[in-house]
Amino acid sequence: MKITEHIKKANNKTLFSFEIIPPKKGNSIQQLYNCIDPLMEFKPHLIDVTTSREEFVYIDKGNGLLDRKTTRSRPGTLGICAAIKHKYDVDTVPHVLCGGFTKEETEYLLVDCHYLGIDNVMALRGDAMAHQKYFQATEGGHPFAKDLVLQIKDLNSGKYLHNVMETDYKSDFCIGVAGYPEKHLESPSLQTDLKHLKEKVDAGADYIVTQMFFDNQKYFQFVEAAKEAGIHVPIIPGIKPIAVKRHLQLLPQVFSIDLPETLISAVESCKTNKDVRQVGVEWAIQQSKELLEANVPFLHYYSMGKSDNIKKIASAIF
C-alpha cells in the first residue's frame, strides 16, 4: 500500500515507522530480524531500508603499488525489502540514490521493485564519496534528486529510458523525498532549500521525510514555511534518539543540525553511555508526545541498527 494511502486510511491517527541499515557484507540478515522483531508489536506501517553508495578500497599488489577497486560494504537493500515484506507483511521503502547509480541501473532497480510489489520508494541524491569534498554525479547518473523523481514519474507513466518502450502496464510508485528543517548543509539558506524541495514536489514527490531534529519548533516552523512555499504533501518528522556522548559532536558535524542546550547539558552530565541512552529515550518520548498532539502523519524513527531504545519510546507512545 502507498504511504499516502496509509495516511488517508489512518484518518488523522499518527502511524509508526522506522528506518534500518543493511548489515555489512558477509553478515546475516538475522541481525536485522533481531532488530525488527521487538518493534513488530507496535504494528509499523512501513520500514525504510537505506542504500549505501560505492566506495573505494585499495589492494596491495605486492610490488609497492596499490590497485584501486570499487565496492559496496552494505549491498542488498532491495533483497532486504523483499525479505522483510515477505516475513512480516509490512510495507518496505527502499532508498534509491542518484550517487553511485546510472539512469539505466536505476531503471532496472525500479523495475525489480515493481516486480516485487514494492509500492513506495525514497528518492535521494545521496552523499559525496569519502574522498570527495562535494557531491559529484555519477557518469550517466542524475545530479539532483529532482531528476531522479522525474525518472520515477516517467516510469509511472509507462515511459522508459531511451524510448525503448511504452506500455499501458505501469508502475505506480509513491515517491518520498528528504526535507531539512534546519536546511541542507550545502544550501546557502533555508529559503533556497525550500525552493529546491518544492522543485522535488513539483516533479512528482508524494511525501517528505525530514532529517532528524531535536527541537520540535524547528519542525513546526519548517512545515509552515513549506506550506507558504506552496508545498502541500505530507511531511513526516524523522526522530533519532541520542545514544552515545560523542553524538554531541558527531550529529551537528555530519548533519549540520543544532542541539538544544537543555539536551546538551543532560548528556554532558551523564557518567556512562547507558545514562546517555536513557536521556536520549526520554528526550525522544517528549518530542514524540508533542508531535503526536499535533497529529503528524507518522512518527518515523532512525534506529541505526539497534531497536532497544526505539522500543522504549514506542512503548510510551503507541
Describe the structure.
α6 (190-203) links the parallel β7 (174-179) and β8. α9 runs antiparallel to α10 (273-293) and α10 (273-293) packs parallel to α11 (308-317). With 318 residues, the chain is α/β, with parallel strands linked by helices. The chain is built from eleven helices and eleven strands. A nine-stranded parallel beta sheet has the order 9-8-7-6-5-2-1-11-10, sandwiched between helices.
Q: Layout of SSEs?
A:
Elements: H1 3-10, E1 15-20, H2 30-36, E2 46-49, E3 55-60, E4 66-71, H3 77-88, E5 91-97, H4 103-115, E6 120-124, H5 145-156, E7 174-179, H6 190-203, E8 207-210, H7 216-228, E9 235-236, E10 238-239, H8 247-255, H9 261-268, H10 273-293, E11 298-302, H11 308-317
Parallel strand pairs: 1-2, 1-11, 2-5, 5-6, 6-7, 7-8, 8-9, 10-11
Antiparallel strand pairs: 3-4
Helix/strand class: alpha/beta
CATH class: Alpha Beta
| Overall spatial form | globular
Kindly state the mean pLDDT as a whole number?
93
Rg for CA atoms: 20 Å
Question: How would you summarize what this structure contains?
Answer:
By secondary structure, this protein is an alpha/beta fold.
Features:
318 residues, alpha/beta, TIM Barrel, 9-stranded parallel beta sheet, two-stranded antiparallel sheet, 11 strands
